[in-house]
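Hi U.,

Before I forget, here's the chain from the pilot set. I'm dumping it here mostly so it's searchable later in email.
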Amino acid sequence: MPSEKSSPQKSSPVVQNKTAKKSHGGWWFLFIVIALYFLIGFFNTDFISASLKHFHALVISITPILALVFIIIWLLNLSQGMQDKLAQLADKNSGIKGWLVAVLGGILSHGPVYAWYPLLQKLENQGARPALIASFLYARSIKIPYLPLMVHYFGMSYTVLVTIYIAIFSVLHGWLVEKIIHNYPGTGRPD
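Structure:
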């Protein structure tokens, strides 16, 4: 009879609880927020009006990037070959190409970071390394449209140096995230 230490795959309690019982916490949160808005609306209609105007402006500002991300996901779903190629560029055997795709993709990506989460989750489910996803997210701090402004305020040498350091440290950050996820159980995605 094998001992408990020799069992090849023992699933964590977090995984078992998640699959056994689906949480409705997100829906409860939504209903509570809506109820609070109605309650506050009775006492302070100006606050609700300003809040809804801000929400409308936020929706307008993130809609284009969300549409772009959903179009990219749709295109990835259309072509299995494209999915395989992108997953191949981000898998464990991707090497330097995977790092370059992650860093350059992070630099070239625009819009709010949460709009990219569905695409990154899809890539992760297809086998993308956590290191490359973390590197992509870190490299997003290099904003191409803001580089001229940065040069204006800080000078060319400072801007180039900081940009290179951010790109290098995005790779180190990705490597460190992957080491933490693999070395410490429970720090990765609990599914």
